Amino acid sequence: MKRTILYLFAAVTITMASMVSCSEEAENLAPTFSKVELAAGNKTATVTLSEPVYATPTKTGNLTKDNVMVTIEGVNFTYEIKHVAGEDKFVVELTVTSVTQGTEVIKVAPKTGTSIYDAEGKAMTETALIASSNLGKNLGIIGKWYSSKTNVAPLLVTYFKVDSIFAEFKADKTYEVKQFNKGNITTTPDVLFKGTYTIAKSTVAEIWTIVIAQELPYAAAASGIFEIKTGPEVLWYEVAQTSGTQNVPATPAGGFGSTNGGTLGVLNVQKYIRIN
Fold it and tell me: Of the candidates 108, 134, 160, which is a domain's last residue?
């Protein structure tokens, strides 16, 4: 009887071990995304996963752009993935080059169904997806701006006797600039500029490029750079007419004061305060 009990105990033990083994295998779920955390300025997004991951089923390889797909609908951007094999998170380094309305979200997914693996070689499903909270709002130059006194570019004061400027850059990519010269105390500008524009955020600090197709008071092409500096918010703007001139516009790499190779210094730098 005792021997029979021992045999039964052994059989139960083997059965339980088998059940535990099967249970462990059943619980080896595919890795999943847990959360996405956006840094200020739309520069990076940190993605956390349910477990450590790799680029291959053999516990090797850092995740790269070949493994991770990032999309932001309606936004121009590029990205890089920073990850160390065996870590349960990676960083998406973003370079956003267009306006963001503050309603867009980052969506992160595996590139394919064989792109992201856990330590047991289980692949993340191709349909896995996670979305971030809204991106930070960055409208670039869109808005209404005012320049007067020492904010007016010295070149405009010296050669055109400019007293103040009201500028509006609209979301439909049209603009209107009202120039008031010294002595004008009316609400009618001395010169009214109108046309269209395109902007793109450069990879240099917070500098944007701008290209202008002027329609009034005469047709002309102009281009240059701008940056919105905060605390308080001030628009730095350096643009030069390029059609019919020898002018070489300022560049993000050259920075402010780089019109015509820097020969003008900051004389062509216009500053505005936002009024809307």
Answer: 134
